[in-house]
């Protein structure tokens, strides 16, 4: 059976190959920002792989530059409204449906938006952490981001500039003079430490035990299915390299070229919002 999709040369055969791979089960999904763009969360990189206007916060700036950190939190405070309002899309729901059908061995996401979980997926490994919690750089205490937001709103009753656009890390673009008027709060556990969203910034290392867990998932998988990632950062690309080395088949579904294309056994260059629902429908009980 051929999946019903708009006719793109070469796509139908690739979709059949993808469906065959998924039918074998034990699929390990590795998802990236491209899966959440339909939910209104922009990708850092467009289809061409070119960096967009926004320069992402780096770990070095965040930890060493109090002013940079302050401005990050001011932007994040504004962006949080929109990030929290984002809803899972058909792609997220299709992944959850594949999991419900017993076809997935695991689900790793590079996204920090929590939309897989909101879409019904379970046991999601958040490779780069999640925006729904914070960690104290002083004492290591983890706390709920929603609770922090309540404290920030109390401390900033009049800080609410309107923005139309947020970045993938959940922050917004604002002029420096506006950012400097923001009041940040500290860790409640130790009373002093600066807070960081529990996400892995550019220039930061993913915790070793998390990486090892992902490698073990790759080793046990029947196939690796990459969704919506250009695999530009080694953080995710290394799992494709490991899979290829082990002979675990790799499928990549995303629009535009990826760094992993030479390693892919199946390559579908089509929108996830078309491919994933059609794929899930094929396996619906
Ligand atoms: Zn603390």
Automatic annotation (TrEMBL):
Organism: Blastococcus xanthinilyticus
Keyword Zinc listed: yes
Catalytic machinery residues: 128 (proton acceptor)
Domain Deacetylase sirtuin-type residues, every copy: 5-285
Cofactor comment: Binds 1 zinc ion per subunit.
Protein name: NAD-dependent protein deacetylase
Family membership: Belongs to the sirtuin family. Class II subfamily.
Any matching Pfam family: SIR2
Zinc is among the record's keywords: yes
Record's subcellular location: Cytoplasm
